[in-house]
Amino acid sequence: MKAFFKKIVVSILTLEARILLRRKNPTIIAVTGSVGKTSTKDAIYAAIKDSVNARKSQKSFNSEIGVPLTILGLQNGWNNPFIWLWNIIDGAMIALFSREYPAVLVLETGVDMPGDMKQLTNWLTPDIVVLTRLPDVPVHVEAFSSPQAVIDEKMILVNSLKPEGVLIYNLDDPVIVDQLEDVRQMTVSFARYSPANVVVGKDKIAYEDKIPAGISFNVKSESVGDSFDVSLEGVLGVQSLYSIAAAVAVAQQVKVDVVTAVKGITELVTPPGRMRVFPGIKDTILIDDSYNSSPIALEHALDTMAQVRHTGRRIAVLGDMLELGKFSADAHENLGEKVARTCDNLITVGVRARGFATGALRAGMDESNILQYEESDRAGRELQSLLHPGDLVLIKGSQGIRTEKIVKEVMANPQDAERVLVRQDAEWQDIG
Q1: 363 in a structural domain
Q2: Burial 196-233 (b: 16+ CB within 10 A, else e)
């Protein structure tokens, strides 16, 4: 959308959303953080949907226009002005005359620029806020004066909680813990490594015929005392554990018992491009983490990769981590050193990703094991000839690098791409 038209549309849809919230007064669960927002939002919905009439943000609708669209139950019009005009008309009818409406809204909230969260909280007052993680170098820091400025922006959402509201937070994150001094509302913690109100642990990778097929772990709620076993198919990584822990904590706040919440979670399908694992060509194993990339998310992905049993090489295919500003060069080079310690081969995609190669070389990776590309299309085509049976391949990059194209080139069942890969909508395909 053109900037002027977008501003008008956002203003009208926001007004309609405000009217609807005032009429229906649903319980609002707002999820924010620098990583794991979408996975946590989906896990919360899975945990409560069988007990509560709930609605969640679709895909990663977390922007100034995504939140109103979710509240109104409307679809993204992309660049089609006619769909946006229809959304405005439909939104007015819903805002003024709708009868049935969800009792609970699970909203993903993000920030791209300074002032984004303040603008949102001018009209949105959550009952529950979930803080996933606030890493030292967040995504979008390029638009802010410092990492702390990003943290302060996200904490505006916490400060907008209703007086009787609840903050649910990641106790393993020291950055979040440092922000809690001024929080006056009730707090509930979740963690993997700390003694929290909800704890996940005893996690291990599940295998089928020696191929990683998912993860199994244990979740325990302090308020219940019992522990519960959970299995998730087709996904790897510690971030899924945090999402589940947060979901159990939220479920209890909306009066959904832990047994029911865990049952709903076991049916959860992790969003595309978030540590999804499936077969690649030539009997390889792919870890598809192509939705986006940031330093902390890539660090977790590499740690997970190091834990997977396999018979071939570990190959990291890494695209640019975007929007890191002055922190970009150091972040890429430092993680390149970690690649050298955890992987056998490195393939970089994009100008900034050359920093991965610099760091890997500095840490001792042989130059012959490093390849560098400018764009994903060529990298994907040439990766096919480089793979050997048994190789484990991590593919990750920021949204603008479109590393899902690489996944599509080397997945064993490309006919499943529309179902299992991120950014397969016609609108994304038109972008190229």
Answers
A1: yes
A2: bbbbbeebebeeeeeebbbbebebbbeeeeeebebebe
